[in-house]
Give the backbone structure.
Amino acid sequence: MTENATPVGRVQLVDDFDCKRSWLVDSYDDVRDALAARQLSRRPPVVDEYIRRFRRLVGNAFTPRRVERLRPAVHRITDELLDRMEREAEVDLVEAFALPLPLVVVCDLFGLPEKDRPQLQEWFAPEAVQSSRERRSEESEEGARYFAELVARRRSTVRADLTEDEQPDLVDALLAARDEQGGMTDEEVVQTLSLLLIAGHENVVNLMASGMLALFRHPDQLRLLRERPELIPAAVEELLRYTSPLQRSAFRYVGEEVEIGGVAIPATDRVSVRIATANRDPERFERPDQLDILRAENGHLAFGHGIHFCLGAPLARLEGQIVFDSLLRRFPDIALACAPEELEWRPFNGFIQGLVALPVRLRGAAGPAPQSRGTGTHSTRS
């Protein structure tokens, strides 16, 4: 049951299964304020300072510079997948492209061997994350054991004379990360790797699949992007706003009373923000339900904001820009191969919603598509 807590209904009070009072925040300004509020934490307040230190250590290792060094690898992986697709007239874009690409990219980021990728796909792919609780538990334990063994091996070989940013991959960088209180434990590194693999995989899969569907449903925007590929960076930002791969945040604990949208929310309550709703707020965005790749000042909240800003945002942006650029260059006549209403969506878990499949025709009546024009020159916007 939901009841309005303010006359405009910007903050809503909902009944929760554990009897804690939980609040949903909807409007753009209120969501932005909530994400920036230091009174809110992803964990109970007692461990809040630990979590903030943990984010600093991960941020020192997972730098924009490290992400930028992945650019050639992302281009290579993208072109390899497109080469395989080029043999077909019609493919499922989710299975053939959107699912494998971010997994391979993250494996490169971690320095993981190619032979381990099928198993990692089974453990951490979106369909595994949304499987039954019993199966999820088993896969989580197996994935944790894999990373625990990896970290134990790497701990003895990591070079202490290199800074975090100089380490060859993110695993070694996390093991080398230090601050005035020391470094990360093996268990913390394992948890970080698992989280980055899940988040870095699922969000990018949904950006690619839902983003292409949005372009198919807005043919004027798709045509404009084909004609003006220099708009790719802006288009990725608009697709992030329009599709909101993460629909709603996890609940955050209120460490001390905080005011959001004119409502005083007391300590020990919990707050969740509806990112998808904020990204369609008509008070912030003109024609919010319209996809517009020429939209100016697109300050979407798809990656969060402030102290709750996603550490993986630079990588997601890099992948999105390269993917949409390369896909439309290689297959300029790509089109949806079914009616939109025939598409199947994975069960919505309250946070993320994604397509099961996206069947596409790769070529029109004009014949074979032109070859890819290489790596492109679009820079990452962070």
Summary: Confidence is low (pLDDT under 50) at residues 1-9, 365-382. The chain has one domain: 2-361. Residues 304 and 310 are 6 Å apart (CA to CA).
